[in-house]
Amino acid sequence: MNNFFTTLTFLFITYFSVSQSYESKIDSIVAISYNQNEPGISILVAKEGASIYSKSFGKANLELNIPLQKSSVFQIGSITKQFTAVSILMLAEQGKLNIEDNIGKYIPEYVEIGKDITIHNLLNHTSGIKNRTPVGDKGFISKTNMSPTELIAYFKDEPLEFKPGERFKYSNAGYIILGRIIEIVSGQPYSDFIEQHIFDKIGMKNSSCGDTKQGIPNPTKGYIIEQNDFVKSDDINLSLAYSAGAILSTTEDLLKWQNALLSNTLLKASSIKQAMTPTSLNSGKRVPYGYGFRFSKLGNSPVIAHTGSTKGFTSIALFLPKEKLYITALTNCNCKNVNNVAKQVAELFVSIPDDKITEAKHNQPERKSINVPSEILSDYTGTYEVKPNVNLTIGLDNTNQLYLLAPGQTKKVELFAETQNHFFVKIVDAEITFNKNEANNVISLTMNQSGRKIIAKKN
Question: Is the pLDDT of residue 365 over 70?
């Protein structure tokens, strides 16, 4: 089994020249976290609706040594909620429902408890329905198949957590109810509705809804981390995720989805605006969520996004309307921060205001370094084995500056001492501690970057 920390290049990629092209810069950002011998990532960047970058890194299946491709199919988790919300709005435009309808009109189990809950409350997570689903319950068998009515029966007796419209609280259960409403109103299974009215209409040929299609082309296996090793995640029966998270797709298909939304292929402009507008609570307070879309900012640039996660998979899709930029990244391991990767890529295209940079630096406490005698630093120099035939080098230059050189890299990165054996890096969030045995000999180092830890034995 591959070890989680097989390379150290993540530490140095951000130190590259600003003269790089966008392609090489994106390559560098992605390579910080993903390499070709681990579960990986497919990432696509589009400008004004056209793809300007589309690549995959890593393996779709470690055991079979199958690389990821641009056409690799991933579970996209809660990005599914966008499809559910748009389907509801499509039915509303057809006059088959009204988003102000009480949900008890369609779901008998909620005639009483849901008498004040509207479809609108489900769409924007203000219903008060507790986020309790089989997928989230400890010990639940993830391969169990459940129908939509069985899923609703699982949580229908839970009391509301608050009065509808009073608060925002994310609820997968609410989106499961929306899926059932789509079925009742349309007369079609949820998966059939999505495939007929969305996938087929806009050419999402490599997408499917749950386990409805056998023999999915270019399937991707999900992984988790156990004791620093990649382990295949348990297969989940996607009927459990249903309309809250059961869709499988590719980065290229998700670009088709985004373009269809912006071109009003599926919905009128007024409906899209409604979905992409922050919610107002009963008090008038605004919360950064619409109908399947979250809202934030990157510098002065608005961001419209959603993330997703299932067992062994994580995903993000974000749109920056000011820059007309769309980024989607899909991964087959829920052990790395794909959101941060997408954010760093987006920052390449966004001008961060100087005052925001100054503010960020001001809020970041300055780390003080100390001087360490050269005879102590010399003990740290040498090579350290990360894995067989993969070593990093610790060196000392003629100015008494300790540095680290990663395998395959030529750029030295300076290390600054906080104590005599604990050092930090200024260019990225990384720290190194040198470990000694009882005889006071250096035997290893421990590197920690943003919670990711590597222990390397000194040769």
Answer: no
Say if residues 91 and 182 touch (Cβ distance below 8 Å): yes
The single residue listed with the structure tokens 């056998």 is: 214
Is the dihedral angle over the CA atoms 260, 263, 265, 269 positive or is it negative? positive
Strand partners, 118: 102
Q: What residues form DSSP beta bridges with 326?
A: 46, 319
Q: 212 versus 396: which is more confidently predicted?
A: 396
- Residue of 333, 331, 337, 351 lying closest to 44 (CA atoms): 331
Q: Which of 2-6, 52-56, 331-335 has the lowest mean pLDDT?
A: 2-6
Residue with tokens 């991933």: 74
Residue 296 near residue 314, CB atoms below 8 Å: no
Please tell me what DSSP assigns to residue 269.
H
Q: Model confidence over 35-48: pLDDT tens digits?
A: 888 999 999 999 99
Lookup: tokens for 152 = 């609703």
Question: 423 has which bridge partners?
Answer: 417, 432
Residues near 50 by beta carbon (within 8 Å), at least 6 away in sequence: none
List the structure tokens of 55. 């690549």
What's the rounded Cα separation, in Å, for the pair 110 and 405?
A: 62
- 171 vs 183: CA distance, rounded Å: 19
Q: H helices of 15-63, where? A: 22-33
In tens, the pLDDT along 255-283 reads: 999 999 999 999 999 999 999 999 999 99
Question: For the whole model, what pTM was predicted?
Answer: 0.75
> What's the rounded Cα separation, in Å, for the pair 296 and 311?
26
Instruction: Give the helix, strand, coil percentages of the chain, each rounded to 5.
Output: 30, 25, 45
